[in-house]
Structures are given as structure tokens and as C-alpha cells.
Write a structure and sequence with these properties.
Layout lengths: L12 H6 L6 E4 L2 E4 L6 H18 L4 E5 L4 E2 L13 E2 L3 E5 L3 E2 L2 E3 L4 E5 L5 H5 L1 H9 L3 E6 L4 E6 L12 E2 L3 E3 L7 E3 H5 L6
Parallel strand pairs: 4-8, 9-10
Antiparallel strand pairs: 1-2, 3-6, 4-5, 6-9, 7-8, 10-11, 11-12, 13-14
């Protein structure tokens, strides 16, 4: 039997995992942020087409690509399994297979992509950027469908994401971090143009 859903000061992943089905969201330093209603269809089209290209590239490799929802637990030093206070569900996450278990990914993914939507854009650019930075996500992309651009953030040797300007999401883009992977942005946005 599930525990009733209450709102104490701070949650852990064990709390989150025990809640009734249908309660979905993310934990930021123990604070629960409820998932918004389903995103705009354009968000889903962009995410799906981007994921399809990335998933095909990683098939059979040591890392594997996932599309949301996938629980990504980002433990602080000393937090045991289940005690994580930071749990996110990136739009796309490329994870080392060694970090996977039956509940998702524990530890920093190799690459995270968030596709902005009006309800989550600020969170993706601030809270999630800071969370991915301190947890050591080496590559973080922020994709803006309305502006048709993307920002690439690579973790520097000092453990921070340097400022980066957005690039137009047009034509083909070779992903320097993964030789041989080329994103076809025109394909990503082909069906998202009808509104």
C-alpha cells in the first residue's frame, strides 16, 4: 500500500518512489516540482525526432539514449541509494549503461538535452543548468523550438559551464563530442513548422 502524498519540508528519492502512480515531477534539493500538463505538440515532435537520431547512433555502444520520463538520480557526496534529493527527468539523456538500474540512472548522464517549453524554460535555463553543472554532466544542450536554436554547454576543467551563445538549428550539425554523430536540424523541425 502506498503512503499518502504529503508535503514535508524535504523529500528523498525513497519518498518520491513510494508515491501513488500518477504523481510525477522532479526533486531539486529535496523540493518537489510537479510536472506540468503535457507539453505542446511541437515540443514532442522536436524531442522525438532529435531522440530518434541520437538513439540510432548510440545503439550497441557503452552509453544508451533515453527519452523522458526516466528518473535520473543525482546524488550528493555521501547520499546512499534512495536518499538522493535531486531527481530529474530530462527530455533526452544519454547514460553510461553502468549507471543504470531498474529505477533509471544513478549519477550524471554523459549528455542531457532539454527542449524548452513555456512552462519549464526558466527551470531548464537556471535550476537544471546549475544542477547538471554541479553533478558533472559533461554536455548539456538547451533547444528552443520557438527560436529554432540550440545552446551547447560543455563542462570546463574548472567544473563550470562557460557562457555560450545559441546557434541556429538549421542544416546539419556534427556533434564534436561524438565523432560520427550528425544532427539533421531540418529533419528535426520538418513537422514542427505547421504551426
Amino acid at each position: 500500500m502506498h503512503k499518502p502524498f504529503t508535503r514535508p519540508e524535504s523529500y528523498t528519492y525513497a519518498d518520491y518512489y513510494s508515491w501513488p502512480e500518477g504523481i510525477r515531477g522532479e526533486l531539486f534539493d529535496g523540493q518537489f516540482h510537479v510536472s506540468e500538463p503535457a507539453p505542446h505538440p511541437r515540443h514532442q515532435l522536436v524531442t522525438g525526432c532529435l531522440f530518434t537520431q541520437i538513439e540510432a547512433f548510440f545503439r550497441g555502444k557503452p552509453s544508451i539514449a533515453f527519452v523522458a520520463p526516466l528518473d535520473v538520480r543525482l546524488p550528493r557526496s555521501g547520499e546512499k541509494d534512495g536518499q538522493e534529493r535531486n531527481v530529474v527527468q530530462p527530455d533526452i539523456a544519454v547514460c553510461d549503461r553502468a549507471k543504470l538500474d531498474d529505477r533509471g540512472c544513478r549519477g550524471a548522464p554523459d549528455w542531457v538535452i532539454e527542449v524548452l517549453s513555456p512552462s519549464t524554460g526558466d527551470r531548464d535555463r537556471t535550476l537544471k543548468r546549475a544542477l547538471y553543472e554541479w553533478s558533472g554532466v559533461p554536455l548539456y544542450w538547451i533547444v528552443s523550438p520557438p527560436k529554432r536554436n540550440f545552446t551547447v554547454l560543455r563542462l570546463a576543467t574548472d567544473g563550470c559551464y562557460p557562457s555560450a551563445a545559441p546557434s541556429p538549428a538549421i542544416g546539419q550539425h556534427a556533434v564534436a563530442d561524438y565523432p560520427g554523430l550528425v544532427i539533421d536540424w531540418d529533419r528535426v523541425f520538418a513537422d514542427a513548422q505547421w504551426w
